[in-house]
Design brief:
The chain is of the alpha/beta class. The chain folds into three domains: 120 residues, Rossmann fold; 76 residues, no CATH class; 130 residues, Hypothetical protein af1432 (Orthogonal Bundle). Helices cover 59% and strands 7% of the residues. The structure holds fe (ii) ion. Fe (ii) ion binds next to helix 16.
Length: 363
């Protein structure tokens, strides 16, 4: 994926520990040669830097004297909604970290590895540069609206009130809402859960979280949802049902090739979430996007052409961007980002997640 922007991203790194700050400075200066790097030893110093720089991303320690990382990121979210926000933390209080997800796109475990920060950000910045409409870019990055339907939030909360509810039953309910499904994967794949490899299996994610943490997550979403626009029910159903069909086809194909579980899980979610960007665009642009979908059904123009005309980006790019901020595996992100790209050819013998998803989508 090539970047359409030549502007160097400005990244602010914040840590009150002088040793960690200087070691990260040394390492990041080596790996992130294409970024303008800024370093601050407190939240106040970071905000001071922001007076002269619009940050592309702020990466901050959670625990700092004075302003902590979550408060700093809340300020960044308010004044620079287009900035990517990452927290790193050595804290073990899972509930506090889960709450920090409402302001941070991702949470990394401490000590923070400069290469890990570089990788976490590079792909998101690359896709962000493809979102031509600043309003859409700002809206998606701000994270104020997550494409989860209100009824799913209430369904899960009522399920969680049942004594001894089984993880399987919760999983069945989560599967009905792609936004909630993705948000749970975002949290479980944050480094504070210490997973060695990405978790793409929602049943496994629910088991690892347990009922109490799941309740904290869904209650957080309920609060965030108070001011959100309503998701269109028909669009949600269509995106979910076509996603499930595609995902079932890709699973059959992957199984024929005898691929390992991790690979088939990645193919599954790359297929399931392929059109997730339609939900993101519908909460970003509201009825205007629904009209565009309607027009594409009755006009000669394709949906992606109409999307490009209106937003200077497609649902493929918007979905891939949000899921990249949410730490989905890079193979999944690349497959989603390019799924509407007709020039991408299919390999005779499929190898990558993208190859398998593309073949399954054309059958
Ligand atoms: Fe699509």
């Amino acid at each position: 994926m090539s970047s359409s922007s030549n502007v160097r991203p400005s990244i602010i790194f914040v840590d009150d520990d002088p040793m960690l700050l200087s070691s990260t400075r040394r390492r990041l200066t080596l790996v992130a040669r294409n970024w303008d790097l800024h370093f601050a030893d407190s939240g106040a110093a970071a905000l001071e830097i922001c007076k002269g720089v619009v940050p592309s991303a702020v990466v901050t320690d959670m625990r700092m004297p004075g302003m902590d990382g979550a408060v700093l990121l809340k300020e960044i979210q308010r004044y620079f909604p287009e900035s990517i926000r990452i927290i790193f933390s050595g804290q073990t209080d899972q509930d506090a970290l889960i709450q920090a997800h409402s302001v941070a796109h991702s949470i990394l475990a401490k000590p923070c590895d400069a290469d890990q920060i570089y990788q976490a950000l590079q792909l998101s910045l690359e896709i962000q540069s493809r979102l031509g409409d600043p309003e859409i870019r700002r809206f998606v990055t701000s994270g104020r609206t997550i494409p989860v339907s209100t009824s799913s939030i209430f369904d899960i909360l009522s399920l969680l009130r049942e004594p001894d509810v089984s993880p399987k039953k919760i999983g069945e309910s989560v599967r009905n809402d792609l936004g909630l499904y993705a948000y749970i994967l975002k949290i479980i794949n944050s480094s504070h859960f210490g997973m060695r490899s990405p978790v793409c299996d929602i049943d496994q994610a629910i088991l690892l979280l347990g009922a109490s943490q799941l309740r904290t997550i869904v209650c957080g979403l309920k609060l965030a949802h108070a001011l959100s626009p309503t998701l269109d029910k028909n669009l949600c159903t269509e995106v979910l049902e076509t996603g499930i069909l595609r995902a079932q086809k890709v699973l059959q194909l992957v199984q024929k090739h005898g691929k390992p579980k991790m690979f088939s899980d990645e193919c599954y979610i790359a297929s399931l979430f392929q059109d997730f960007g339609k939900l993101v665009l519908s909460v970003s642009a509201g009825s205007r996007y629904l009209q565009i979908i309607e027009h594409s059904r009755h006009q000669a123009s394709s949906l992606v052409d109409l999307e490009r005309e209106a937003f200077r980006c497609t649902h493929a790019e918007v979905g891939a961007y949000l899921l990249s901020l949410w730490s989905f595996p890079s193979s999944v992100i690349r497959s989603i980002c390019r799924h509407e790209d007709l020039q991408s050819s299919v390999q005779e013998e499929p190898e990558t997640v993208e190859d398998f998803v593309r073949i399954a989508s054309t059958r």
